Amino acid sequence: MSDKRDLLILGGGLVGMTMALAAARAGLSSHVVDRADPAELTAEGFDGRASAISTASWNLFTNIGLADALEPHGCPIDAIAVTDGMKPGRIDFKPQPHEGSLGRMFHNRQLRLALFEAAASEPLITRHMLATVIERQRGEHGVSATLADGTVLHASLMVGAEGRMSPTREEAGITMAQWDYSHRALIVGLTHEKPHDNTAWEIFYPAGPFALLPLLDAEDGTHRSALVWTVAEKDAAGVLAMPRAMFLAEAQQRTHGVLGGLALHGEISSWPLSFQHTVTLTAQRLALIGDAAHGMHPIAGQGLNLGLRDVGTLVEVLVEGMRLGLDPGDAQLLARYQKWRALDSLMVMSATDGLTRLFGIPGRLPSAVRRLGMGIVQRTPPLKRWFMDEARGVSGQVPALLKG
């Protein structure tokens, strides 16, 4: 007998597993398929990346029951300092006392651990890990995926969540607007002399942004942060080949001493940077979420948050449709998801792309113009509030799961 589920989620990473869990909390069943080994994904040192979880995304995690597991591991972001090369004219974003933090920083490993543990105990989720999809079918009455071991999984709706290189998206023939920034993000943990005071620093240099993101102190009280340093692709190999002492000296120079003396913690990883946005988020009985739908520059830390907004929206659309007796793969529901998410995701990505290009223009005059604009934002509370609400994910039409 076929074990047909509501959803067939292809990709069990942060966004895909959150989709499965959020759907399950709303009563929707799913198969989740991923090629990766969960033990490797949650191993110490596998992925040194950390993610800024916005206010809206934290609401989502709270509403699907992850807050208690995650709370001890997150560092609140109480302020964001944005500066053009540490010159005068920076912007300081700070929430009102009643609003809590601007977000929380988590190691990706901790997010995976919490998600995997919650999914393992959820009867509406069946995980197929270390599994390769060799065939996908989308028809008038349902979808299926055939795995390499011969297993055939059936569902009403296929959800593509495999990330930027999504084979589901490619097989569906969905085209993308895309370009390469010719930059690479270098990511490594730091320990430092001074406390970070829960402040995230976004320091813009013509060669690329240099971000210092606060993490919880170590158990022995050592202060820790995550560094995301963007360099030109042509320079990346040389920077990565530097002796650690030289790399550290270069990083130290760019911080202007805001964290005091620095030391590297862990290995340096690197990721190429590009822009990609699909022409559509849907096809017949198919919805794309996360990086399968839109990959962006990490300049504002919105990539994962944008994917979590996809999750909240898709779950809400499906639940409301099923209450009316509609099938999860109904074209009306997919059209609503497309309409709701397309404009928001494009606006966020366009703003991020614009900032990347604006701050990449070298020279004194462009720097002076940028700092003048930043000074205007700093002195204009309504404008500053708008930027903060965008960063926190609480502006516009927000899905119920992402509300407090």
UniProtKB/TrEMBL annotation:
Protein name: Ubiquinone biosynthesis protein UbiH
The FAD-binding domain, residue ranges: 6-341
One Gene Ontology molecular-function label: monooxygenase activity
UniProt entry tagged with the keyword Flavoprotein: yes
InterPro entries, alphabetized: FAD-bd, FAD/NAD-bd_sf, Ubi_Hdrlase_CS, UbiH/COQ6, UbiH/COQ6_monooxygenase
Lineage: Bacteria, Pseudomonadati, Pseudomonadota, Alphaproteobacteria, Sphingomonadales
Family of this protein: Belongs to the UbiH/COQ6 family.
Organism: Alteraurantiacibacter buctensis
NCBIfam families on file: Ubi-OHases (TIGR01988)
Domain of life per record: Bacteria
GO annotation, biological process: ubiquinone biosynthetic process
Metabolic or biological pathway, per its Swiss-Prot or TrEMBL entry: Cofactor biosynthesis; ubiquinone biosynthesis
Residues in the signal sequence: none
Keywords: FAD, Flavoprotein, Monooxygenase, Oxidoreductase, Ubiquinone
Cofactor: FAD
